[in-house]
Design a protein that fits this description.
The structure holds two protein chains of two kinds. Chain A has helices spanning 13-25, 38-46, 74-83, 101-109, 122-139; strands spanning 5-9, 31-35, 62-65, 92-96, 114-117. By secondary structure, chain A is of the alpha/beta class. In chain A, helix 1 crosses helix 5 (122-139). Chain B is α+β, with helices and mostly antiparallel strands. Helix content of chain B is 51%, strand content 20%. Chain B has twelve helices and 19 strands. The chains are: A alpha/beta, B alpha+beta. Chain A binds chain B through residues 12, 14-15, 17-18, 21, 67-68, 96-101, 118-123, 125, and chain B through 375-376, 379-381, 383-388, 390-395, 416, 419-420, 423, 434.
Chain lengths: 149, 604
């Protein structure tokens, strides 16, 4: 389990720090790759740009995706993920500030597996991180990997 | 325009009225004059028939008298006496010659007979076809009645005694009473073609029209001294006049068919009818012409008014008349101008308003879009720093608790509480903005089910509380489910919150009647409020309780009110301090309310 990677797509460094802290407090010691905007997230996943040459046969076990991102926003990242056979089945949890109805609808319609609102109360945030980690990293059976492809 | 034609029309009614009146007058006149004319015609016919009868009777009587005079002269002639005294051959020739003078010169059928005192025939000359026994008449010269031994043989006798010696014998003359066709034609020329003369016995047994035997006229006619109508056996109507021929047992009658004077009356009637028809036609035409002069301009006026009414430009009416119609047209023109001007003014005004409205709409759209963007960005961006404040405060509390004194720890906790309160405030404001902007849906919403779900959530959140929910089931209304959920959530959450300080609580959702309308309510027996401040309950950021007492943002009830108003309803509250509060609300008057059973949930 520990060798599986979490891709955290988040531009706010505070949120990155808090998320990492929340994960750590729950003893979720997976490697967390942070992409600070949509382009970097896509580069990482598809082995392009800064991440050219990355072995794309290894995919993160979970993507935590913020919606409001510089350059390419979260919904577009999600769309591109779902359009590519390599990332089509990747578990994506939208982790964002708002519960605006249109965001919820777009997120789920584009194929998000889950939608979690970041609570302001850090205690609740830790609790949310714990639940998320437990579910997606421990209990959830990941889709078959496409190492051969 | 076609409608105008189908309506009741003056143009038709006036000529009809005039024609009707004329017809009345003409018929009355015709009836009156017809009576007079027919009476006059009958009178003239009566006079004619009577005059003819008198004339013909006098002519006949004269002829009879002359015949009798001739007969008397012959009876006194010496040749006849000489033969009776000594009937030799020579005397016989003399008597025959005398007798032969009595035969008519025309050669019409007749016979003369000399009879002796015993009534025996002594001499006979003339038509042998009428050689019958003669009647014994009187001792004076007399005309006898008509006799008819058969239908074709008609004759009469005249006789006279031989002069001075009644017992010596007599001479009888017998004549056929039929006339020759020539004579009848002459008679007709004299009397007129329609008149027929008849002669018959006053006794009424035998009558002839001088050609053949005819039925006798009715007794009433024979006895009447004046001309009168009668109906023949064959049903024909006749006007007849009868007079006795003096010195004979005979009567003379002249008759004409009643139709001969009725036909002149009929002809008069036809003439009158033709004149009446002409008068009627002229009258109707005149009335039509007059009414057209009135209705044609009226029709154009009606068309123009209709055009004006349907918003088309009305044509100007130019009649060139100074009468009432001309005045009407002028007034109409003035009115049409006013209407047109007013309409144009109105149109440009409407166009202006529409432009203004469009501008305002565009501005509103832009403002809405901005507000949308603003709310979206608030939702995302305003919360992020709060998360940092709260998160890192917590990190401090956890990581550096040993280096902070009690005051420092308290400050950090206050920082966290404030940031969480601000987060709640942001959420509530976003919700208020959302219920204002959101598109409304309309569908049946089960309020009872919603209330049940919310109550369960609240009870799960604080299972230790002894609070009881009483929810009337089956309350369904037309509305927006997510907005109505906001209403119930806020009201029930408030009730839950403001009963928190009581050991036991009862929160109720149901329906009641106020002023005849169904009103929903959420009531509790909690902290309540002072009615003096009831007006401030629904204003945004207005709170009746200190934040330390009950947490809250002061936005919830403003949001509830917004949603209720968007549903066309009302909301108000009643409360008593420490004895609870009740919030009443309605959603649109047409919404259906169905209440069924009541269930209650108890949280212990």
């Amino acid at each position: 389990m520990n060798d599986s990677v979490i891709l955290l797509v988040e531009d706010n460094v505070d949120d990155v720090a808090l998320t990492l802290r929340a994960l750590k407090k729950n003893n979720l010691t997976n490697e967390v790759v942070v992409a600070s905007d949509g382009v970097e997230a896509l580069d990482y996943l598809f082995g392009t740009g800064r991440h050219a040459g990355r072995d794309t046969s290894v995919m993160p076990q979970l993507v935590l995706l913020d919606l409001k991102l510089p350059k390419v926003d979260g919904l577009e990242v999600l769309q591109r993920l779902r359009a590519d056979p390599r990332t089509q089945l990747l578990p994506v949890v939208i982790l964002t500030s708002s519960t605006e109805e249109r965001d919820l609808i777009s997120g789920y319609s584009l194929g998000a597996n889950s939608y979690v609102r970041k609570p302001v109360d850090f205690t609740q945030f830790v609790e949310a991180a714990r639940t998320l980690g437990m579910y997606w990293l421990l209990y959830n059976e990941p889709p078959p990997s496409r190492r051969s492809g | 325009m076609t409608r105008l034609v189908k309506r009741a029309s003056l143009e038709r009614e006036l000529p009809l009225l005039v024609a009707g009146l004329l017809a009345l007058v003409v018929v009355a006149l015709a009836a009156a004059s017809y009576g007079a004319v027919s009476r006059g015609a009958r009178q003239a016919a009566i006079e004619r028939v009577e005059r003819l009868t008198r004339d013909m009777a006098s002519t006949s009587a004269t002829s009879f008298q002359r015949g009798l005079a001739d007969l008397r002269a012959t009876a006194a002639s010496p040749a006849v006496r000489a033969f009776l005294e000594s009937p030799g051959a020579r005397q016989r020739d003399g008597a025959v010659a005398a007798l032969r003078k009595l035969l008519p010169v025309s050669g019409a059928s007749a016979a003369v007979e000399l009879l002796d005192a015993g009534g025996r025939e002594v001499l006979w000359v003339g038509d042998s076809a009428i050689r019958f026994a003669s009647l014994a008449l009187t001792d004076t010269a007399t005309v006898g009645p008509l006799r008819a031994p058969n239908d074709s043989l008609l004759y009469y006798d005249t006789q006279a005694p031989l002069a001075g010696h009644p017992a010596a014998g007599r001479i009888a003359v017998r004549r056929r009473s039929t006339a020759t066709p020539q004579a009848i034609r002459t008679l007709r020329l004299l009397m007129g073609n329609d008149a027929t003369m008849m002669i018959g016995n006053a006794a009424g047994d035998i009558w002839t029209d001088l050609a053949r035997l005819v039925p006798a006229p009715p007794t009433a006619v024979l006895r009447s001294s004046r001309a009168m109508e009668y109906i023949t056996a064959s049903g024909a109507e006749r006007l007849a006049s009868v007079v006795p021929l003096p010195g004979t047992p005979l009567m003379l009658m002249i008759e004409i068919p009643s139709s001969s004077y009725a036909s002149s009356v009929r002809a008069y009637l036809i003439r009158i009818g033709l004149i009446a028809a002409l008068v009627l036609a002229l009258g109707a035409w005149g009335a039509w012409a007059i009414s057209r002069r009135i209705t044609a301009p009226l029709r154009r006026l009606a068309e123009a008014a209709e055009a004006l009414a349907t918003g088309q430009p009305a044509p100007r009416l130019e009649y060139g008349r100074n009468d009432e119609i001309g005045l009407l047209a002028q007034s109409f023109n003035t009115m049409a101008e006013h209407v047109q001007r007013a309409r144009q003014g109105l149109e440009s005004q409407v166009a202006g308003r529409t432009r203004d409205l469009e501008l305002a709409n565009n501005e509103l759209r832009a403002a809405n879009a901005e507000l949308d963007a603003f709310a979206y960005s608030v939702a995302h961006d305003l919360r992020a720093p709060l998360r940092s404040i709260d998160g890192f405060s917590q990190a401090l509390l956890e990581d550096c608790a040993d280096r902070l004194d009690a005051g420092g720890l308290d400050s950090l906790r206050r920082v966290r509480a404030a940031s969480q309160h601000l987060a709640m405030l942001i959420d509530d404001m976003l919700q208020l903005a959302r219920v204002t902007r959101a598109e409304m849906r309309r569908e049946p919403v089960d309020l009872s089910g919603l209330a049940r779900t919310i109550a369960n959530e609240l009870q799960r959140g604080a299972p230790a509380r002894k609070a009881q929910f009483l929810i009337t089931m089956g309350l369904v209304v037309e509305g927006d489910p997510s907005l109505l959920r906001v209403v119930l959530h806020n009201l029930l959450d408030n009730a839950w919150k403001y009963t928190a300080k009581h050991a036991r609580a009862q929160i109720e959702f149901g329906v009641t009647k106020r002023d005849g309308t169904e009103v929903f309510f959420v009531s509790d027996d909690g902290a309540g409020f002072d009615m003096a401040y009831a007006g401030k309950l629904f204003g945004a950021f207005q709170r009746l309780h200190a934040a330390i007492e009950f947490e809250g943002t002061g936005i919830g009830l403003a949001t509830v009110q917004r949603v209720v108003h968007r549903h066309g309803g009302r909301i108000w509250a009643e409360g008593v301090v420490e004895h609870g509060a009740t919030f009443f609300f309605t959603v649109q008057a047409s919404s259906t309310v169905q209440a069924s059973s009541q269930t209650q949930g108890v949280a212990e």
